[in-house]
Amino acid sequence: MSRPAVHLVDGSLYVFRAWHSMPDEFHDADGHPVNAVHGFTRFLCELLERVKPEHLAVAFDASLTTSFRNAIYPAYKANRELPPPDLERQFVLCREVTQALGVPVLIDHTYEADDLIGSALWSLRGHGFRSVIVSADKDFGQLLGEDDEQWDYARNLRWGPAGVLERLGVHPYQVADYLALCGDAVDNIPGVPGIGAKTAAALLAHFGNLDALLERVDEVPFLRLRGAASCATRLREHAEAARLYRRLTRIALDAPVAAQADELRRQHGEAAAIDALCERLRFGPLTRTRLKALAPGS
Fold first, then answer.
1. What is the CATH number of the domain that holds 147?
2. Average pLDDT over the chain, rounded to whole?
3. DSSP letters of 153-200?
4. Could you read off the pLDDT of 15-48 as tens digits, one per residue?
5. With bands split at pLDDT 50, 70 and 90, how would you rate the model's confidence at 1?
């Protein structure tokens, strides 16, 4: 672990968690709900105090309906309700708090937060950095290189590539193929009918990747696999769909993000912005003290 670390935070996940977990008793100076902002701010303060990262970024989703995945598969995430206006407003405020603390924000209307994190990881790996992805989302397993980690902050669990194999039964380079086969209900990706997680993992353990599996599908009936013959039939029928699903499950590595490490270096906090946010969001004494300590001079 001698290489410097960049912490890449799945901001949208922690905003949603705060929205669902914080009591509905926090309101800003105009009477609007700000429970998610209060919860997210506490999380971010704790992360900065605990890790003191020199390089980091917080990635946010711009919307549930505008990514390139929606263009190639309109049903993508169509099972999710759009955030209510009160939460949309709080997402904007969470970004303001993040920027006021001098933390770089990643957001794009074409690429999702996962893609921005993946692209930043890929770019900074070439500059000698290892990455710590702060998220519980299983999709990020596909990004983990030898020295990278994923950190489920709420449960304080960390794992590297070996942890992906332990959790999903596949190696990091197989995660996108695995999700294309067995589906991902959270993102409304159906997968190949009848192929569950264990079958998908077994198929990839034998064939290595989705392309090899589909090219050698005639071998599937001879595997020691329950329902192997019917599995082969379904793979033939849904081969093109599986390839499409992989375009959805594979995290993009070419999103427009910082090309140099200095662009993800934490800057000095904006004291005036912190003071204004404290008044506007009616933060309590403890949160104000933490924010001011993280933004000297406020």
1. 3.40.50.1010
2. 95
3. TTTTEEE-HHHHHHHHSS-GGGHHHHHHHH-BGGGTB--STT--HHHH
4. 999 999 999 899 999 999 999 999 999 999 999 9
5. low
pLDDT at 291 over 70: yes
pLDDT, residue 298, reads 47
Full strand arrangement of the beta sheet holding 55-59:
105-106, 55-59, 5-10, 130-134, 149-152, 157-159
- Token couple for 129: 């950095």
* CA pair distance 124, 104, nearest whole angstrom: 14
Could you tell me if 230 and 96 are in contact, meaning their C-beta atoms sit under 8 angstroms apart? no
User: Identity (one letter) of the amino acid at 207?
Assistant: F
Residues 108 and 200 in one domain: no
What is the SS3 assignment for 130? strand
Looking at the structure, tell me whether residues 50 and 137 fall in a common domain.
yes
CATH of residue 191's domain is 1.10.150.20
Confidence of residue 296 (pLDDT cuts 50, 70, 90): low
Residue 294 · residue 101 · CB < 8 Å: yes
Counted domains in the chain: 2
Q: Are residues 102 and 211 in the same domain?
A: no
Based on the domain organization, do 105 and 122 belong to the same domain? Answer: yes
Q: Phi, psi at residue 69, to the nearest 5°?
A: -70, -35
User: Are 92 and 36 found together in one domain?
Assistant: yes
CA atoms within 13 A on the CB side of 247: 13
In this structure, what token pair is assigned to residue 174? 């197989």
Q: What is the pLDDT of residues 97-144, one digit of tens each?
A: 999 999 999 999 999 999 999 999 999 999 999 999 999 999 999 999
Domain range for 269 is 5-168+252-294
Domain boundary among 230, 249, 268: 249
**Which residues share a beta bridge with 150?**
133, 159
- The reply to whether 149 and 197 lie within a common domain is no
